[in-house]
């Protein structure tokens, strides 16, 4: 019997993948977690019916959310990751030798446990002495830590359920306060083809908290439409102020990110510019 998993999108479309078997299905106090073995894409993580990653293509998301802000900052020694329970973003952050400490705050311990079990190559950073892994509410952690980090990465799910508080003006102002005087942040910000309203509100709120706000894009085949956007917000640096471009060639095992990607990822199609109504802040 053929087994298929389908994620339905909001515009009467979806994404269907043939699967071999269900490896794990369970529910934490926050969300439902499924680990599926697919025919062609390796193992796949699904949260509340939404695809989070596939083994075959996870690098495209994790490299873009991590290496763009890490390249933009001239000396990112302390890095905070909110979410990212699979460990992929931490893995990429810790490829930068300049990092002295990476604090990762994930609210759902089940995601961490099952990532270690089923995705050890993604969760490899959990064994790093530079990683301080905390199982708690990232919103509260941000509130309690001021002027502490060079880079903050918001590796959250969509703005529903446990991630909903991470998409608000109040939260972005707390992120600003959590950063050092020249700190910057990145966050996933949905597909411009499908989620115009969410994107417009997110960037409006972020613009009330940071003097520099930009969007960059990448191609993530397991997310809706394949075109995915990321927010870049900074207290001081623009993407091209003091980027560590020459460092990129020294990063181990990059499958997506490179110098040319960094130089072009902030160029936006006209329809995306219209969504943002950019004013070159």
From TrEMBL:
Residue stretches spanning the membrane: none
Gene3D superfamilies according to UniProt: Spermidine synthase, tetramerisation domain, Vaccinia Virus protein VP39
Domain of life of the native organism: Bacteria
Pfam families: Spermine_synt_N (PF17284), Spermine_synth (PF01564)
UniProt keyword annotation of Transferase present: yes
Keywords linked to the UniProt accession: Polyamine biosynthesis, Spermidine biosynthesis, Transferase
SUPFAM superfamilies: S-adenosyl-L-methionine-dependent methyltransferases
Family from the record: Belongs to the spermidine/spermine synthase family.
Role summary: Catalyzes the irreversible transfer of a propylamine group from the amino donor S-adenosylmethioninamine (decarboxy-AdoMet) to putrescine (1,4-diaminobutane) to yield spermidine.
Protein's name according to its UniProt entry: Polyamine aminopropyltransferase
Species this chain originates from: Flexistipes sinusarabici
Lineage: Bacteria, Pseudomonadati, Deferribacterota, Deferribacteres, Deferribacterales
């Amino acid at each position: 019997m053929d087994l298929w998993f389908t994620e339905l999108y909001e515009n009467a479309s979806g994404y269907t993948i043939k699967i071999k078997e269900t490896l794990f299905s369970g529910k934490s106090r926050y969300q439902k977690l499924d680990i599926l073995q697919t025919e062609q894409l390796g193992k796949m993580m699904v949260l509340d019916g939404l695809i989070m990653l596939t083994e075959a293509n996870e690098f495209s998301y994790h490299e873009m959310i991590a290496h763009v802000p890490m390249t933009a900052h001239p000396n990112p020694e302390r890095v905070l990751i909110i979410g990212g329970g699979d460990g992929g973003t931490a893995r990429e952050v810790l490829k930068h030798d300049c990092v002295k400490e990476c604090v990762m705050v994930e609210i759902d311990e089940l995601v961490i446990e099952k990532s270690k079990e089923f995705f050890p190559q993604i969760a490899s950073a959990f064994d790093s002495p530079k990683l301080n892994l905390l199982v708690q509410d990232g919103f509260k952690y941000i509130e309690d830590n001021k002027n502490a980090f060079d880079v903050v990465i918001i590796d959250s799910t969509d703005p529903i359920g446990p991630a909903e508080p991470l998409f608000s003006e109040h939260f972005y102002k707390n992120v600003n306060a959590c950063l050092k005087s020249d700190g910057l942040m990145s966050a996933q910000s949905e597909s411009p083809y499908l989620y115009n309203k969410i994107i417009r509100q997110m960037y409006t709120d972020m613009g009330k908290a940071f003097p520099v706000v930009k969007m960059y894009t990448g191609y993530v085949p397991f997310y809706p439409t394949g075109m995915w956007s990321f927010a870049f917000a900074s207290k001081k640096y623009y993407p091209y102020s003091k980027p560590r471009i020459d460092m990129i060639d020294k990063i181990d095992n990059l499958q997506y990110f490179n110098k040319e990607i960094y130089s072009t990822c902030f160029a936006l199609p006209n329809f995306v510019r219209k969504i943002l109504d950019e004013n070159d802040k």
